[in-house]
Amino acid sequence: MGNAGGAEPLTRIMCVEDDPDIRELLQMALEDLAGFELHLAEDAETGLSQVQGYAPQILLLDVMLPAMSGPEALPQFRQLTQEFGTRIIFLTAKASQRARSEFIELGADEVLFKPFDPVTLGDTLSSLWDNWQA
Amino acid sequence: MLNDLPADKLAGLRAKFIQRLAQRADDMQAAQLALQNALASGPQAMAEPAQTLQRLAHSLKGAALQYDMPALSAQAAQVESQFAQWQSAGLVGDAQPLISLATGLISACRALTAS
Hints:
- The structure holds two protein chains of two kinds.
- Chain A has helices at about 20-35, 45-55, 70-80, 95-105, 120-134; strands spanning about 10-15, 35-40, 60, 85-90, 110-115.
- In chain A, strands 2-1-3-4-5 form a five-stranded parallel sheet, sandwiched between helices.
- The model of chain A has no long low-confidence stretch (mean pLDDT about 95).
- By secondary structure, chain A is an alpha/beta fold.
- Chain A has five helices and five strands.
- By secondary structure, chain B is an all-alpha fold.
- Chain B has four helices and no strands.
- Chain B has helices at about 5-40, 45-65, 70-90, 95-115.
- In chain B, helix 1 (about 5-40) packs antiparallel against helix 2 (about 45-65), helix 1 runs antiparallel to helix 4 (about 95-115) and helix 3 packs antiparallel against helix 4.
- The mean pLDDT of chain B is about 90.
């Protein structure tokens, strides 16, 4: 992903989220407010078909998705993004430490809870990214 | 002025969310009708519409909370939870209370789009 000696800033995010109202909020938060390049997919299958072409630095993955859930799709997303070093973050409404631990055990790099603050979401992702790069 | 920018944008998205409640109501009603039609056929036939209703309620629960509508979110959470429990139990027992819960949620969505 980045050069051996330098940290790469966060610029490119992909979100897999089936709810159109949440997708619009994510677009506002991450594209309009935070200025990231953003790619949105509305289900896991679409996301899986597009993730290699987009090569996101962070993949924000909703948990409950139609047909294939976020946790079900995680292994495939991990395999497809291995060469890019993509960090995968679950976005879930199950706000508890237990739920967080379970999702981390499944293989996510981090878990964020809904409802999220659209004004600060970009900063949150940037901070996580900077910590991972350090 | 710059601080107003997110608030204006958020207000615009919230208005869109409320408008889209009509589509959510339509989708839930279609799943509810499919479930009612499947009642006589047994759990296997009921599984998909029940799962669809649960997922739609879950989606609405999250979106309503995100757009600062906690009462609607709580109502959707109740529908989601009841359907999840019913599915865990193998879709046995009287489905009518659950269908009535879904009716209440659908009505609530339609009332909000009408106001």
